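We were asked to recover a plausible sequence for a given structure. The inputs and outputs are reproduced exactly as logged, with field labels preserved.

PROBLEM: sequence recovery
POSITIONS: 393
GIVEN STRUCTURE:
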């Protein structure tokens, strides 16, 4: 089975309609848990998801079950039946000049303050409608209305060769989604037909926090420092450009989704990263992250001597210090910012001055208002003065 293909079994709920509670039920393996886990993490990270699969396999049922489990509304919008104004807003003349009036389904979600926008049959949407969906997928913006963060955008698409008048997704639209190939199990369908469908249990998903996001972004940045060619890698194949590929946007989304997954949930991490930056880049990053065995930034700040700085190669030192800087900037307090200088100074004393100086520059840029630099900053006076940052501090 392809790493980006998840075998999902909708567990029986004991009733003939979706349960409002998540039922663990029986599944064909951990892949169903990974899919629902990634769906949850993407929603909390504000990342849109696109489920790819053959017609009639239950993509709509999955999202309906997710909405029922969360007890929130689900607005199903079929792109092939809509006009661009249904997403970009209908121009309305007012005394103040004009506005872009959102459709009724967007107003209902705004009133509910939570729910799902389900963009069904995405690959049958003509290019003009796909263009109008760009703001919906990335910002949850419909006309002049911006929906709350608790509204998740999910789409479903058939491969163009199996869709009615199918289109490849435009690269700008595809690059806004986490793509998952979806293939439910036969046993799950049988169980659901006889006992009712409900959503399998998800794995652990963290609540969003600035600290977790900052550390995760720092790790991705450290990887791109080692592999800059993977930052932007637009596919030459038109079909591939309609799925997952590496860009500055998708790397950021990868970091934000991975930040909400458990450290030991390798399957969900693989599914999420492959769905955002493509399998090749995802495998390379996850392998790098695993082999780097990066310590907890909090532990490094508490005791900078816990890291054998002198024995580490520069790329790993940069990754560790980037995590420290990321945690400090995510925390946002003067105390956290001052404490982050300790590991940088320790690394510089152990022969890693060039790497520590590069991170010191980033840390000083992130200085909270009125924060006085600690004495460890003296080790980096030269490089910070050359950058024009020391006088500003």
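RECOVERED SEQUENCE:
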């Amino acid at each position: 089975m392809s790493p980006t293909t998840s075998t999902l079994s909708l567990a029986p709920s004991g009733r003939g309609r979706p349960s409002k509670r998540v039922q663990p039920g029986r599944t064909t393996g951990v892949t169903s848990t990974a899919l629902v886990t990634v769906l949850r993490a993407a929603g909390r990270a504000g990342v849109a998801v696109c489920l790819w699969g053959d017609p009639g396999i239950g993509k709509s049922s999955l999202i309906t079950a997710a909405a029922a489990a969360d007890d929130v509304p689900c607005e199903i919008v079929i792109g092939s039946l809509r006009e661009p104004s249904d997403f970009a807003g209908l121009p309305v003349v007012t005394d103040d000049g004009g506005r872009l009036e959102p459709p009724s389904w967007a107003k209902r979600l705004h009133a509910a303050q939570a729910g799902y926008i389900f963009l069904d049959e995405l690959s049958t949407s003509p290019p003009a409608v796909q263009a109008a969906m760009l703001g919906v997928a990335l910002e949850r913006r419909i006309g002049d209305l911006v929906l709350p963060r608790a509204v998740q955008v999910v789409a479903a698409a058939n491969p163009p060769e199996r869709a009615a008048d199918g289109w490849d997704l435009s690269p700008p639209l595809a690059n806004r989604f986490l793509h998952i190939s979806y293939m439910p199990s036969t046993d799950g369908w049988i169980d659901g037909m006889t006992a009712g469908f409900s959503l399998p249990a998800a794995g652990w998903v963290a609540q969003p926090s600035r600290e977790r996001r900052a550390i995760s972004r720092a790790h991705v940045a450290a990887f791109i420092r080692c592999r800059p060619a993977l930052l932007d890698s637009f596919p030459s194949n038109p079909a591939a450009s309609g799925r997952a590929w590496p860009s500055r946007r998708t790397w950021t989304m990868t970091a934000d989704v991975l930040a909400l997954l458990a450290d030991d949930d390798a399957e969900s991490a693989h599914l999420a990263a492959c769905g955002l930056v493509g399998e090749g880049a995802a495998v390379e990053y996850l392998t790098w992250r695993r082999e780097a065995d990066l310590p907890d930034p909090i532990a490094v700040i508490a005791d900078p001597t816990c890291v054998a700085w002198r024995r580490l190669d520069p790329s790993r030192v940069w990754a560790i210090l980037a995590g420290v800087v990321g945690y400090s900037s995510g925390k946002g307090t003067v105390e956290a910012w001052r404490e982050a200088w300790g590991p940088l100074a320790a690394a510089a004393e152990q022969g890693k001055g060039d790497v520590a100086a590069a991170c010191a520059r980033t840390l000083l840029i992130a200085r909270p208002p009125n924060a006085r630099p600690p004495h460890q900053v003296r080790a980096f006076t030269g490089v910070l003065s050359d950058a024009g940052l020391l006088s500003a501090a």
